[in-house]
Amino acid sequence: MEKRIIPQANSEVRAVTGEDGIDHIVGNGVVFEQRSHLLGGWFYEEIVSGAADSANTDLLVSCFNHDLNYVLGNLENRTMSIDITPTHIRYDNIAPTTTIIRELVGEPIKRGDIRGSSFWFDVADNGSEWIELPDGYWLRRVHVIDTIYEMGPVTMAAYPQTTTDIAKRSFDQFEQARKAAVTRSLRQLADMKMRLLRLK
Description:
Blueprint (H helix, E strand, L loop, with lengths): L1 E5 L1 H4 L2 E4 L5 E9 L11 E5 L13 E4 L2 E8 L5 E5 L3 E7 L4 H13 L4 E8 L4 E5 L5 E5 L2 E10 L9 H36 L1
Parallel strand pairs: 4-11
Antiparallel strand pairs: 1-9, 2-3, 3-8, 5-6, 7-8, 9-12, 10-11
């Protein structure tokens, strides 16, 4: 499971009162076709538009700071809804009316103290590609998200946080496949040269 924080310029977290008179906490939990900050000191990431179209959201909940003690909404329970567009996934939580959520989350969002979002997800097997950039860093393009577990507002959105060990395993698999392909090509070239020599 990987965690990504959305830069606050793209997250648009807000606490609003709907036409129904009910308080909502809304924000962009995932953004597409936007390059991340440098992650783990060695790679960037872009999530392709449409990558979440078939993602499993059966367990999707929204929490504050990923803390399951502060649940803001639950998709299955219909206290949370999502809207998947070509540019982002927007979440909308019916805000709990408890004092602790209002004081810990709602009021700081209204004041602008909390301005970003984050989400937990799994990439599908072979659902990403790695591209080496001219500056020596790598770009991971995520084409297929398997599961989204959680998304919601976070305090430190301006500072990229990530679980990079899973991404590293994905990169290692890519490297192994690339090296194996190079080895096969070299063997085929050597075999072709041998056959040409026999023909002379």
